[in-house]
Amino acid sequence: MDVQENWPEIEKAAKEKRRELVLQGAVIDEKISSNGGLCSTIYSLKLLNYLEIIQCPSLTEIHGDIKNLTTLTSLIVCRNKLSSIPKTIGNLKLLKVLDISVNNLKALPDEITQLSELNTLNVSCNNIESLPDGLCHCTKLSIINISKNGITRFPDDFYRLDLLSTVIASENDIVDLSGNVHMLSALKVLDLSNNKLSDIPYELSDCSKLKEINFKGNKLKDKRLEKMVNGCQTKSILDYLRAGGRGKGKGSKQADGDKAEGGRNTEKTQTKKQRKQKKKNEEEEDEDEVDKLNRLVVKVLHISDNPGAFTVKVANELKDVRPYLVCCVVRGMNFRSGNALKRFLAAQTKLHDDLCGKRTTATIATHDMQLLKGPLMYDARLPPILKIVPLGRKEMTAVELMRQLQLEAEDQRKQRKRQNVSGLHKYLQLLDGKELYPCLVDAEDHVISFPPITNSEKTKIRKTTKELFLEVTSSTSLQICKDVMDALIVKMADLNKFTLEHREEAGSEGESDVPPDPASDGTTSGELIIQQVRTVDPDGNLKVVYPSKTDLSTDVGNLNVIW
Prior knowledge:
It is a single chain. This protein is α/β, with parallel strands linked by helices. It is built from ten helices and 23 strands. The strands form three sheets. Strands 10, 11, 12, 13, 14, 17, 18, 19, 20, 21, 22 and 23 form a twelve-stranded mixed sheet that branches. A hairpin with a 5-residue loop joins β21 and β22. α4 runs parallel beside α7 and α8 packs antiparallel against α10. The protein is flat, with a radius of gyration of 27 Å.
């Protein structure tokens, strides 16, 4: 085989002594298909720390010679058609990250348990029915994702993973969660949604660091608890388990004993009909109580109720650039408390990565409403003319910004000896070949947004922000903009409820001395107020208003939208 001709990526990595190699997509897949597998030379790149091979359906196996890559710390071989993982993977003693998700795996080799440095394991979206015994030997394992498999139980020694903080095990066939779950002292996130659980052990409430749980889609014996997990915050569910609920809980054991004798006598005097009615009444009361705990309230203010409502005019030139836009104004978010702002920014990033397809299908931008001057114009401008003060930078043209980001990306690649880049740099290619760049401009002709690249420092949200102007843009469709905005607002309502329930102290960032702001617009109740925003064409003809009556009609059962 002529490696230089057929596999220049591998030849270049060897020549430049790279620490990272990324192979992906149709061109690589075609080479794997014609070669009958990966080029064997790849297993001689003994300096590699990071190896990523993704989106290659022709890749059905990895050769046992992978044992030679003893300096690997990250191995990403997802979205292929792997049917097995070689036992020699146990030789990769420095491996910290192993992602073999979205393949055709039916089992994992026991040798995975020999990876003592392993921190993150992702085996989601396969056909795996069981996890190997001995995972407790992976003493540094912190994150495990086994979702979308056929796993029925956790191994007994699974609960001895002292550093395990995140367990994603949704969409499996798991029938039991052991009371030993309390031994997972570092556990912060537990997702067991859409499994076959009938009970949740009360010992789960002893996981003191637990911040997020998801048991939706399980048919629990305790119907009140089932209703709670389909909408309540983690704190409410843990409090219920801690109090004992109706099952075997800490708070129920003594009560069961005290009431046992009297209960027998009372039961004798009640008719079957009376007992049935009493149970029905109790369940209805429980449902009302849970509904109150669950409720996420969003109130929509119509444009007609606010003469000063914002309007955004959309330029015709955007048709071939990035034509779709929806906007709205949100009041009632509490960013002052604790880490509320950080949680919001993290949620926005997650939406960008997931629903927005890493910004390829849509991009979210948030602004401090008090710093905006309307009306706004969604425009398309020549790169040398478009000027913005990017987040964390001084004012520059779009040409200067793109050039600077490209230089930073190249420096990053050289310093880390990588092929790919991180952060904002990975979105630069989304504007390749565009003669005009999209931008949102205020009444004073200041560019406040340059999608999908960055926002303006001038309208950056802070802990003191009381009103937000939200925008979602897309080059794909108007519906994806609406879907993303719906998801963002639901998440904001959820975060606001979390902040209200936990009553954190005011955060840092130099604003801890700012007194709490009484929520005359709904903050004390967690209620969000959404002000409609219209987008119009240059002649003033309506293009879209958000939210409309057909928006926010999500399948989130506890969302209460008031029109």
